[in-house]
Amino acid sequence: MPQLVLSIEGVEIRRVNLQKQRTTLGRKPHNDIVLADLVVSGEHCAFILEGLADVTVEDLRSTNGTYLNGQMVRKQKLRDHDVITVGRIHIEYLSAAAPGDFGQTTAMPLGGASTYGQAAAIHASLRVLSGSSTGLEMPVVKAVTTFGKPGIAIVAISHRRNGYYVAVMEGGDGPLLNARPIGADPVPLGDGDELELAGTRMRFCLKE
């Protein structure tokens, strides 16, 4: 199955399996991939799946353009490991997800059931605090969302009945929460908590 790997300054923030015939990306909430960044248009680009594995990226008349391997494109068929750039987000295209790859959501023995629908009034996100992507917000909308850089550090943020929790999946004592090692056991997350992951600082935010 084709897959998109989204990253900021080398830190992986999300993986999306392309299962739909058309997957849209943009700033507005109705998109399949929502990027809360002012340089991203409301409806920025779309990934069109043809057959089982052929994918084309199409710019949707965005303000700042969609770039493929450094060149602005309007519509172009993708090849394995092509890199699409949208604002400050780099998106690597994989023609097939490798077995064991972390997906957009990942089954983990964290316990508890997700009740996101019951707490729809609360919106969680991570705000980047360091580097050129400072100020960028990444929504946390899945039952379990993974962030990080494979081979270096990966954490999982899970949404449970009584709130949000973070746990280390890869990286040992590297990832920090409020300047302290997180560990493998899930730790509660509160509004304003700061995560440090692979050299990038992020603040966990809760909004009604």
Write a brief structural summary.
This protein is an all-beta fold and 208 residues long.
Question: How does this model look, in words?
Answer:
The protein has strands at residues 3-8, 11-17, 22-26, 33-34, 45-50, 54-59, 66-68, 71-73, 75-77, 83-86, 89-94, 123-128, 137-140, 144-149, 153-160, 163-170, 176-177, 180-181, 187-189, 194-197, 200-207. The chain has 208 residues and is mainly β. The termini are far apart.
Descriptive tags:
6-stranded antiparallel beta sheet, mainly beta, single chain, 208 residues
* Helix-strand sequence: EEEEEEEEEEEEEEEEEEEEE
Distance between the termini: 36 Å
Treating each run of at least 4 consecutive H or I residues as one helix, how many helices? 0
- What percent of residues adopt helix (DSSP H or I)? under 10%
Radius of gyration: 17 Å
Task: Give start-end ranges of low-pLDDT stretches.
Answer: 99-120
Q: Strands of the largest sheet, in order across it?
A: 2-1-11-10-7-8
Structural class: mainly beta
What is the mean predicted local confidence, pLDDT? 81
Shape: globular
Beta-strand content: over 45%
**Number of E-state strands:** 21
Largest sheet: 6 strands, antiparallel
